[in-house]
Amino acid sequence: MAKRSAPEVNAGSMADIAFLLLIFFLVTTTIETDAGLNRKLPPIEDQPEDPPPLKKKNIFQVLINQNNDILVEDEPMEIGNIRQAAIDFIDNGGQDCDYCQGKGDPASSDNPIKAVVSLQHVRETEYATYIAVQNELVAAYNTLRNREAQRLFGENFTTMEANFNDGGYEGNKESLEEKITQIREMYPLKLSEAEPKERE
């Protein structure tokens, strides 16, 4: 009986198929990116050699130790109370602030422009605690900015910023930018994040 030869498989198009699959997976795959903190560095400006001294009463100190205990102005405090404490400090209205609604405590900040919030931690502080405290401090500024934007312009400051950054916004962007700048000048975000300390 005669041997039959096995038919050859035409593999000429295999390379094309592999190439198309490769392109398909490259196009359809999503790559996870870490969402970082939304922070912009201030523009470089010519600074005087000796910066003006800060009065201690204009500094709101927040410290986090290795046990994730929070000290605000050397007093223990829970995370849930930090926002209001920061608002009371920033919006104190001690001097030259006709829009402040604080009590005018002489031991607290002079006004929002001079107020500085200082956040410091030790190296063993948990990251989640540090971020939670930082979020509360930023939220204090956002609360004050929203309040003033609502009072002056009848709009929420957060919404104004979102509209300004939205490419499809059809309103007057120049006018919106002026409003945002005005609110930021009233309540400048002065959050100083100091170098971590060694364990206490």
- Rounded radius of gyration (Å): 28 Å
Strand content: 5-15%
Main sheet properties: 5 strands, mixed
Structural class: alpha/beta
Mean pLDDT: 82
Shape: elongated
Order of helices and strands: HEEEHEHHHE
Head-to-tail CA distance between termini: 94 Å
Counted beta strands: 5
Give the strand line-up of the largest sheet.
3-2-1-4-5
**Helix count, DSSP H or I runs of 4 or more residues:** 5
What is the helical fraction, as a range of percent? 25-40%
Low-confidence stretches: none
Question: Which features characterize this protein?
Answer:
200 residues, alpha/beta, five-stranded mixed sheet, 5 helices, 38% helix
Walk me through the structure:
The chain has 200 residues and is of the alpha/beta class. The protein has a domain at 57-193. Helix content is 38%, strand content 10%. The chain contains five helices and five strands; from the N terminus they run αβββαβαααβ. The chain has helices at 14-28, 79-90, 127-153, 157-165, 173-186; strands at 59-64, 70-72, 75-76, 116-121, 191-193. It has a five-stranded mixed beta sheet, covered by helices on one side. It is elongated.
